[in-house]
Amino acid sequence: MKSKKKYTITDVADMLGVSRATVSRALNGTSGVGPELREKIIAFAEEIGYRPNTLARSLSKGRVNIIGLIFGDVRNPFYSELTFYIQKALERYGYTVMIFNSEYDREREARSIETARELCLAGLILFTVVTNMEEEQLRAMNIPIVFVNRTLELQNYDSVLLDNFRAGYIATMHLIELGHKRIGFVCGHQQSSVTVQRFEGYRQALKTYYLTMQEEDVIPGDLKMKRGYEVAEEFFRREERPSALVIGNDLMALGFLDCCKEKEIEIPEELSIVSFDNIDFANLNGFKLTTISQRVEEMGEKAAELMVRRVEHPESEYKRIILEPQLVVRDTTREYKET
To answer: Distance (Å, rounded) from C-alpha 85 to C-alpha 142?
Structure first.
């Protein structure tokens, strides 16, 4: 029967008459211990309920087996779903996660990165917007980093991302193929590489079909539901407006649709909408969004693999994995009909 006492590795070594190093090697599966002795040590540790002090063991290596995740808004279902898949994958490699919520604030983001360094975390996975100055700070901190859905000018970082130019292009092309000729774009954070690339894809799709982009149809956003509601209020006060919108993410699109519901504006009869992320809420009754899937499960798996590879093999070559976006057609788009 297991004892309630918390045994140390020294206790196990003394009770078995072997060295601490032998116990450590046996429990960690490293060489230097015969199979019979290894089996005996493992069985005895299990019998008395011994559990190794993983924190102390990690700190002896100069780091803890914890990966920090820094993202902009913990309330965004896209980030929570992505975190779920990253955590699930990292656990298979023996790592846990620590979450930092920056709320898209650069100072909070910088403090989170500094905290991760002070805590000797094994590495960082960043979903956030990072300026060139902050890149220099990251290098000085000497901590393994993987970027998710963000691109940098410098190449010496691992990253996994959606082809965001193509995502913007596909979203816009879907509306063009439905006959829409005036299409607006609701931005995410304008400093974000994701927003920039999706906007370029949107603009290129319009150019391909010789359609004019009107400046007033490019609307600032912030990726939050509240802003989507505000955009809708502003949008429907206009006398002339686009017949379709590409909206920066599902959360803003849901806020936009909420306002439409209150104002009894029929979607897609009066306006077609495409957004990005394909969060679970995008397919609820009453809010069946046409959206671009970011393949979040695969993105999370790849991010975890890159992180573990960088931590355990720091000299390996840097990799950039680019995923292909997928259009998911639901109920917020339809063929354009002149009124």
So the answer is: 26
Query: pLDDT by residue (tens digit) across 224-279?
Result: 999 999 999 999 999 999 999 999 999 999 999 999 999 999 999 999 999 999 99
Residues 6+ apart with CB under 8 A from 290: 174, 272, 273, 274, 275, 327, 328, 329, 330, 331, 332, 333
Which candidate, 19, 7, 94, places its Cα nearest to that of 47? 7
**Cis preceding-peptide flag for 268 (omega within 30 of 0):** yes
CA angle 164, 77, 276 (to 5 degrees): 25
Distance CA 165, CA 180 (A): 20
CATH 1.10.260.40 describes domain 9-52: yes
pTM of the predicted model as reported, rounded to 2 decimal places: 0.78
- 97: buried, middle or exposed (CB in 10 Å: 19+, 13-18, 0-12)? middle
Q: Where in the chain are the domains?
A: 9-52, 64-161+296-322, 164-294
Structural fold of domain 164-294: Rossmann fold (3.40.50)
- Report the CATH fold assignment for 64-161+296-322: Rossmann fold (3.40.50)
Backbone φ, ψ for residue 45 (5° rounding)? -60, -40
Amino acid found at 245: L
Q: Provide the CA 83 distance to its chain's centre, in angstroms.
A: 7
